[in-house]
Amino acid sequence: MAKTAHNIRQLKKLYGSQGIDIIGVTKVIGGNPIIADVLVKNGIKILADSRISNIIKMRRAGIKAQYLLLRTPALSQVQEVVIHTHISLNSELEVLKRLSECALRNHITHKVVLMVELGDLREGIMPSEMNSIVKEVLSMEGLDLVGIGTNLACFGGISPDADKMNELSSMAIRLEEKFKITLAIVSGGNSANYNWVTSSKDVGRINSLRLGESIFLGREALCRKPIPGLFTDIFTLMAEIIEAKRKPSQPYGQVYQNANGDIPKFENKGLMDRAILAIGTQDVIVSGITPKQKITVLGASSDHLLIDNTETNLKVGDTMAFDLNYSALLRIFSTPYIAKNTINQYECESIL
Q: How far apart (Å, rounded) are the C-alpha atoms in residues 264 and 213?
């Protein structure tokens, strides 16, 4: 796990120099307790996940941290949220009222962060409504308003630039002054905030970021460029060859939709060496994996990945290695069909 630990320490140093703390996002690793333990042992105090089941898994494994629910709670989840998490991100007043009622019944104080809409058009309270929402939340027993935050560069791809971060920072200052409160968390976003942080002389009141991609893939999330000094090869996908034959390069017969609902088109290159790997769209987002060797991926169905085997001459039983992007890694850790193994965990990390 040394590469993961290294990335965490480097990111903590980088963002810590600007007074920004890191919340470790575990959803991309499916709440894997072994990896979560590395985060905590290297200074991550808050673990964030969008699935309560992942949080329960980490807590049952004895991972000692504050747990934050990333996805705004559903009304049907409020009991689980209060019982199993310490903090949740919120944008709906009705949900907050139910969280308050549930917290009181269970004699618990639940911490909440109010999410602000700044243009990405995912979750968030419109800025014009923040004063009235904050006023109501402060009157709710069982809840502790600990911060505000925003989400950018996810749904709409909107950059967390200086203008957006200044707007959030100014809002935090106004709310603190108006309501005579202190916001312990002002969360500016995620791994997409790297460019803003490294180009800013003053980050204002922003003191928290929710990082997953930067920790586990060593990249920022706007252009997916590697962050200097970080490892980008922590995870490797391995897939086994289950067929290797010489076949036509173009399917023959009457063409209709394939298993993915597409009508495929293939260039006729005559006979070619082809191979099939035991992985498919049910297991991984195929567009998010890149072969480590020079190979052309021909396509995939739900259980099979087809490659041009002309130059590589791989045999049945051989394996191929792939790099993964964030979406592919997320899908792999969400499926039970792919084994996740930690190799040589004290020197380096490779998930197969």
A: 33
How far is residue 148's CA from residue 162's CA, in Å, rounded to a whole number?
17
The rounded distance, in Å, linking the Cα atoms of 88 and 115 is 10
Torsions phi, psi for 209 (to 5 deg): -135, 150
Pairing label, strands 319-324, 66-69: unpaired
The burial class, CB within 10 Å (0-12 / 13-18 / 19+), for 340 is middle
Looking up tokens 């004063």, which residue turns up? 131
Active site residues: 27
- Structure-token pair, residue 93: 């007043």
pTM of the full predicted structure? Answer: 0.94
Tell me the C-alpha to C-alpha distance, in Å, between residue 274 and each of 4, 41, 133, 313: 36, 46, 60, 9
Three-class secondary structure of residue 110 per DSSP: strand
In 3-state terms the chain splits into helix, strand, coil percentages (rounded to 5) of: 35, 25, 45
Distances (CA, A) of 51 to 33, 72, 157: 14, 10, 23
Per-residue pLDDT of the chain (352 residues; tens, 9 = 90+): 899 999 999 999 999 999 999 999 999 999 999 999 999 999 999 999 999 999 999 999 999 999 999 999 999 999 999 999 999 999 999 999 999 999 999 999 999 999 999 999 999 999 999 999 999 999 999 999 999 999 999 999 999 999 999 999 999 999 999 999 999 999 999 999 999 999 999 999 999 999 999 999 999 999 999 999 999 999 999 999 999 999 999 999 999 999 889 998 999 999 999 999 999 999 999 999 999 999 999 999 999 999 999 999 999 999 999 999 999 999 999 999 999 987 655 444 333 3
Q: Please tell me the distance from the alpha carbon of residue 93 to that of residue 96, in angstroms, as a whole number.
A: 5
CB-based contact 317:240 (threshold 8 Å): yes
Q: What is the DSSP letter of 193?
A: G
Q: Which two tokens stand for residue 186?
A: 């002002």
DSSP secondary structure of 144-163: EEEEEEE--SSSS-----HH
* Six-digit token string for 330: 């997320």
Residue 24 pairs in a beta bridge with 47, 211
